[in-house]
Amino acid sequence: MARLRSYVRVFFIVLIFGGLIGVSNTTYAKSEVSIVAPNEAMLVAQRHVQWASENVPDFGDWKDAKLSRPVVYYFPNGTRSAYEFTVLVNGKPSGFILVAAQRYMPPVLEFGKGEAPSKRLGRLGAARIQDFSTGGHRLLYYGGLSYGIDIGKGKAMDIYGRLVLVPKAVKLEFSREQVANAWRKIGASPASETNTKVLTESITLKIIPSVPVWTEDSYWTYNEGVGDLGGASTSYPNNVGLNADPWDLWDGCTPIAAAQIIAYHEHPEIYESGYYTEEYKRYMTSLVDILHHTMGTFDTKDRKGWTWWCGYPGSDACDGIESFASEYQKLKNEGIVSWSLVNNYDAQPTCTLGLCWLWGGYIHEGDVIKEVDNYRPALLQLENGGKATDGQGPYEDHSVVVVGYAKNSNGQVEYVAIHSGWDMYDHYLAWGNWGSKTHLVKIIPEKR
Fold this sequence. Notes:
13 helices
């Protein structure tokens, strides 16, 4: 696979610089209007709380949970996109549920045990936007994990505090048939009915156990002491591990996601002993720092933490994964890292000829099911449409780790279970809640 990508790159470099082809920007279709009322969204959320408490690991405490009043999110064109409900257990936050505000979207878009995104956006807004208020600034949501604060003139502050240009309209990859069936089931049940039958019929949930979890943005660094610091003069590879990095605090979502997958295949016992141990922190920061280097993740002011999708004529996500083992072994020989290395890694992106950056990618339910069933966490690269304000790249694209799925009796995947990179909890994302260039990178371990 790596050799094929290399040959294809050479061919397309010649074409691009010869002026024969160009790279077109993603286009977005106008969204249709079919509003879900807040009271109906509340009913959906109540049912989902009960379903999750009975069917999803570690959600048993949601059985008698209550819900907050909804927080409303909007598409960039001003139409409502979602309602966020904080799940309250004994009066304290215990996760969130995001319910669609439009009927062409599945009833539940995302849910998880982590902090409600509006809380994080509120902290960012209060710290960085003059005269910020939740009443005076609209919150944006335009696809899986794509949250922001509307600051006007087509710009937003995303959930990482970056300034981005947002699309005027969004096209997401939902299955119309699957969405219609989901709303039909809910509509067939009385409005007063809160039992879970409508949500639990023949749902199969499979989660890969004990996949390490990691996040290294400034929130966790300052509040939990998980990550290492940035902004140091120490150069690579002397920064590897808990030493301060020469780059920004944010190491990049793609190195962080890939590090979790490699740690699962290499030394799961380090994770199982607890992710707040000194050994776990040192091991995970070492993997992230090395992958940041091998992937060629950007450290410049306008592209901090940004990594090229697979197939780019230069260092990219797949190159970094495939060259990780040799780089790691070199650092081990130099005494910079000490843990043993078990595998080499092959990265297989679901893109035409592996050129995700050029044509984008695709994601099939069968690929997700196969990887999870074979106990191989996969890299999911989400395309959601935001652009950097300097126009140089799609900053809203985000890499996460696929660790499971929930599928219905027809074999259709309704949710993918992921590590989002925001917190230390599993996060569940509705199938198709992403842009058309979203793709998987299958990461295959090969014994050395």
